[in-house]
Write a structure and sequence with these properties.
- The protein is mostly beta strands.
- Helix content is 15%, strand content 38%.
- The strands form seven sheets. Strands 3-2-4-6-5-9 form a six-stranded mixed sheet, with helices on one face. A five-stranded antiparallel sheet has the order 10-28-27-26-25, with no helix packed on it.
- A hairpin with a 2-residue loop joins strand 26 and strand 27.
- Helix 2 packs parallel to helix 3 and helix 2 packs across helix 4.
- The chain starts with a helix and ends with a strand.
- The N terminus is likely disordered.
Length: 547
């Protein structure tokens, strides 16, 4: 080999050195050839790729361990469990968890919940109404902190991470490496009282029972849990700060094109249902994954950022107090909601209505008008109306009750393309010998006393459930949430399940859903529930159906 060739060979060896070095650094441990049952969580080094994301879960594994104080409150423990459940549902990976009874040494990758002393820094001492969510990467260690100045704010921190920060990333979950969020809430006295209700909702033990309805395949209801607050300053939507909404109720859901809408009742900017009164409001979102809470894209506002009425209520007692949404439906390019004109609120369970009516938007919710000529008088059973579309026959089926929560439910139907024509509606007045529905048009049909559900029925929704292959009418009366089911939208309906709520420090009512608020082929359903004073707001409840 000549001198020139030797030089070339030497240069070649030198050029290989960086690659050989990297290869040695990246050498995998030798396989043992043995296998074992998967542990509670697979582990992997926390990824820190060049895209600025941290992989909480990637490739069916996670290196993160959940750390919380062993003496944490029941509500914080429930929030941690909710976080683990969300990660497991989203990825199939259950995060490892440990307690701080012995204050373990910091690991390479942790999610630290509600334990600010783990950070031995004065700046992590938060005010009572403050939470902080942030990432720190130091000395090869990655930590995600979910800290709060109170139990309620720790819940807010967890909800914020799950609802706003975690993103689905292939088959895993990731978040920004530069995540740093601090929120201080100037709760009024009313909102401070409400935080106690929020904590109880996360820890409530909710019992269920099926009725043995032989006509339904439903055999059990399990997995009943509060997912997250939907509205209120203590929700991820922080409706007081962003939309001047301290409290509201109802929240009838409907999917219009690719946007999910929620239609709310009386809305206030002040505590104890005072100040800034709007008789109806609405929120909209393209966030269709309810499992980590729902984040609004916005609330309807005719001008500015604050939520405004879609249709005006007179706000005059004994004339017209409010125009309250009672159900919603999307048909082609048009979005509708039915409403009741309330003359007078008398008691919680009974109120006087002027009429039931219909409002429409032909521009995807940008503007709203009341549909002329659509009105059912207040002494009928069609003041509170809830619609559902049946694609099998092209008709809209509508449940109806009078003002209040004291009477039975009725049903009417109409061709979808004639929803704005009162004379096209026909009313269920019985079943013939073979069980087929009998329909009657006009005043005779309206005034019939034939019940769809012969019980005390409150505000409700009707929707088709793919898992059961049945139609469901859902409503809550007293402390029990009822599910009635039927093979056809017109019935006959029978009670299939009862879900009983314990005391949470505020009345719970509502229970509204639609097909967009379901997953696993309809086996799991989310409902929008409302709470009364001192937490006049809405939250998401999930149940699991079992055949």
């Amino acid at each position: 080999m000549n001198r020139f060739s030797v030089k070339l060979f030497s240069l070649f060896l030198i050029s290989l050195f960086p690659f050989l070095f990297l290869l040695a650094c990246d050498k995998a441990p030798a396989a043992t050839g043995e296998t074992s049952a998967p542990a509670e969580s697979e582990t992997a080094a926390p990824a820190a790729p060049a895209d600025g994301r941290i992989r909480l879960v990637s490739g069916g594994a996670s290196a993160f361990t959940l750390i919380r104080a062993d003496n944490a409150s029941a509500s914080v423990k429930a929030a941690v469990s909710s976080l683990r459940e969300y990660v497991r549902d989203a990825t199939g990976v259950r995060l490892a968890a440990s307690t701080d009874r012995e204050t373990p040494e910091p690991g390479e990758a942790e999610i630290v919940v509600g334990f600010s002393s783990r950070k031995e820094k004065n700046e992590t001492r938060l005010r009572e109404t403050e939470f902080s969510v942030f990432v720190e990467e130091t000395d090869g260690r990655t930590a995600i902190y979910l800290l709060g100045g109170s139990d309620a704010e720790v819940l807010n921190a967890v909800d914020w991470l799950v609802g706003r920060c975690l993103e689905r990333d292939g088959d895993g979950l990731s978040l920004s490496r530069t995540l740093s969020v601090s929120r201080f809430s100037s709760y009024n006295d009313y909102e401070k009282q409400g935080t106690a209700v929020v904590e109880k909702l996360h820890t409530a033990v909710i019992s269920t029972a099926v009725t043995g309805n032989a006509s339904s395949p439903l055999r059990a209801v399990t997995g009943v849990r509060t997912i997250a607050m939907l509205t209120g300053e203590y929700s991820v939507n922080r409706t007081h700060s962003l939309y001047n909404v301290c409290g509201l109720d109802l929240g009838f859901p409907v999917l219009h094109k690719d946007t999910l809408w929620f239609f709310f009742g009386d809305t206030f900017s002040g505590g104890e249902r005072k100040d800034g009164w709007r008789t109806n409001t609405a929120a909209y979102t393209t966030d269709l994954d309810y499992t980590n809470g729902i984040v609004f894209d916005g609330m309807y506002a005719s001008s500015g950022d604050f939520a405004t009425e879609l249709i005006p209520g007179m706000k005059k007692p004994k004339t017209e107090y409010s125009k309250i949404p009672t159900g919603a439906i999307s048909l082609g390019d048009n979005l509708y909601f039915y409403f009741m004109s309330v003359r007078e609120w008398s008691t919680d369970n009974g109120w006087d209505c002027n009429y039931g009516g219909l409002a429409k938007s032909a521009d995807d919710g940008k503007t709203w008008q009341i549909v002329d000529g659509i009105r059912w008088e207040g002494d009928t059973k069609f003041c509170q109306i809830s619609p559902a579309y049946n694609p099998a026959d092209g008709k809209v089926y509508l449940t109806g009750i009078t003002g209040g929560r004291l009477g039975f439910a009725r049903m009417m139907r109409v061709d979808a393309d004639k929803i704005e024509t009162l004379s096209a509606y026909e009313y269920l007045t019985g079943y013939d010998a073979d069980g087929s529905a009998v329909w009657t048009a006009g005043e005779a049909g309206i005034r019939s006393e034939f019940p769809l559900i012969d019980a005390r029925v409150s505000e409700n929704t009707i929707f088709y459930n793919e898992y059961l292959g049945e139609w469901i009418v859902s409503f809550k009366k007293d402390n029990v949430f009822h599910l009635y089911t039927a093979k056809k939208p017109e019935g006959p309906y029978a009670l299939s399940a009862d879900i009983t709520f314990p005391s949470v420090g505020a009345g719970v009512y509502g229970g509204f859903s639609c097909p967009a608020l379901s997953r696993d082929g309809g086996r799991k359903i989310a409902f929008v529930m409302s709470t009364w004073d001192p937490c006049y707001n809405t939250f998401l409840l999930e149940i699991t159906l079992n055949k």
